[in-house]
Amino acid sequence: MGHYSYLVIGNYQYLYTRSHYDPELAALFSEDDRQYNPATEAPAEDWDEEGRSFGYFTTAHALRQRLQVQGYTSRRAHTDAVESLERWRARYDAEHELRERQEQEGKDDPFTDLTRRPRELADLLADIRSAIGPHQPIGAFDTPGEYLTYEDRFVEAAKDVDRLYWETDTRSVIRLLIDQAPDDTVVGLDLSALTGCCVHLNPAQPIAGPSRRRQLASLPADAPVIVLTEGSTDSRLLTKAMHITHPHLDGFIRFIDYTGPSAEGGVSALSRMVKAFIAAGVANRFVAIADNDTAAHTHLAELKSRQLPEGCRLLHYPDLPLLADYPVLDPTSSEMTRDDVNGIAGSLEMYLGRDVLTIDGSLAPVHLTAIHETKSHQGALSQHHKRRVQKAFDKKVKRARKGHPVDGSDWSGVHAIIESIVHAFD
User: What is the pLDDT of residues 132-175, one digit of tens each?
Assistant: First the structure.
């Protein structure tokens, strides 16, 4: 009897690997996803045939985002699948024509026409979605034969997935499968059968971590997405934010502090760094993300008008509902009004949460200054308020990482920033 590892998605298993595991699949998990229940501790219903369970498990949402930042988008997975099915169909047609000629000539070669005609992609995906979800019990069918026919659909779909697996990039197939599952579906690499007799996989040894490190040795798809910001403060705070809002992307997205504590920051430095990366032909995919304010939009307009390399994306922090109606101090009258400051005053501090922007019971106001050359306004918090907001955010992160978040903590702004980075290459 063989020992296999496999990909679990909801209620079905795919991509069986005999006596080992697929390192590309393992590299999509982190050591934080590890689950090991030895025979003496595992609940009986979770035991495999030898009384233990071992593997790496997360959610479809987490795995989908890890694939997304590696460039394995839904569109790419769908395109790869369509092309693979076309090659499969062409082989089937060629073999079918050969078999017909052999029959006409009175020849019979049992090894010809072993390929069956592939189904349409939409039909395959529909069966995958059904297999992943809850299965109908045998009692729902009039006869056992009807139940077996129902389950055979899922078996045939798994066979089709195996064929795509050999024809297509592994991660494209995994993305295609994951896209058929709701976000909260449990997804995992089940290694339970590899820990018993004759296999000797040691559950105490890390698997996902080393697999990911080996994968990082190849560029560019396997390397983390590099993110350039306007300075060290933005990189530091966004790294902390990602650990709270998107912890599953640790090791897949890397914010670079390229300025250092005393070096020049700002949009000018970011623009120069982007140009340097492009000129150097940096192999990694990288995202440059700037403030959502007047200065950044103006300064980067020329660079955004260029044809950027495929592996480069230039973004601004996204518009936020909070900033669409925000208190501002008018530069001429010093009166407090409310206005839409998206695109005018969207520095990182404005994304750290309504809770930390609220000082002494009110939102810290944006101070507007006139830019005469463009007849527009640039806005920002006062330096005093910036420091208070940053310190409050640091404290909020510390509490959250210790498992003591404050009720009403607002992470929506930084969550939106990370999401824009995740989907930069869509």
Answer: 999 999 999 999 999 999 999 999 999 999 999 988 999 999 99
8 A C-beta contact, residue 424 and residue 287: yes
Return the structure tokens found at 268. Answer: 């000018």
Three-state DSSP class for 192? helix
Long-range contacts of 78-81 (CB under 8 A, 24+ apart): 78/121, 78/176, 80/168, 80/169, 80/172, 80/173, 80/176, 81/121, 81/164, 81/168, 81/172, 81/173, 81/176
Which residue do the tokens 């000018």 mark? Answer: 268
Helices (H), 53-143: 60-69, 74-104, 121-132
Alpha-carbon distance values, 323 to 309, 354, 379 (Å) = 32, 10, 12
User: What distance in Å separates the CA atoms of residue 134 and residue 16, rounded to the nearest whole number?
Assistant: 21
Distance of CA 384 to the CA centre of its chain: 36
Please state the length of the chain. 426
Q: What is the C-alpha to C-alpha distance for residues 366 and 327, in angstroms, rounded to an integer?
A: 6
Beta-bridge partners for 186: 59
Sign of the torsion formed by the C-alpha atoms of 235, 239, 245 and 246: positive
Separation of alpha carbons 129 and 250, rounded Å? 29
For the whole model, what pTM was predicted? Answer: 0.78
Token pair of 399, please?
């509490």
Which among 9, 398, 391 is positioned nearest to 187, based on CA atoms? 9
Neighbours of 121 (CB within 10 A): 16
> How many CB atoms within 10 Å of residue 23?
16
